[in-house]
């Protein structure tokens, strides 16, 4: 069902402060930036710095593991829903791609991500 991890999202309140911490303090490369969003290369793992999906899983704090589905985002969301997984906000569209947010069995936020075409 999943290819692997696409990105780990770190929710931030101040994007400039976060970029300074991950870039200057930790010495990691900021690879992409767009307004209140940035990507950091952590030895091949992408860490995304941005706010949470406002209509997503509705929780505070903590990172969000984002997986890349093997099939289309719609097919994967449908398959999860058939297994009883709730996807409260459905699929949301953004300039940087499409996401579907849900909870794992322990209440942690998880997303599916599909890059823009």
UniProtKB/TrEMBL annotation:
VOC domain spans which residues? Answer: 4-115
Q: Which domain of life is it from?
A: Bacteria
The family database entries (InterPro entries) matched by this protein are listed as: Anthracycline_SecMetBiosynth (IPR052164), Glyas_Bleomycin-R_OHBP_Dase (IPR029068), Glyas_Fos-R_dOase_dom (IPR004360), VOC_core (IPR037523)
Give the matching PANTHER family.
GLYOXALASE-RELATED (PTHR33993)
State the protein's name: VOC domain-containing protein
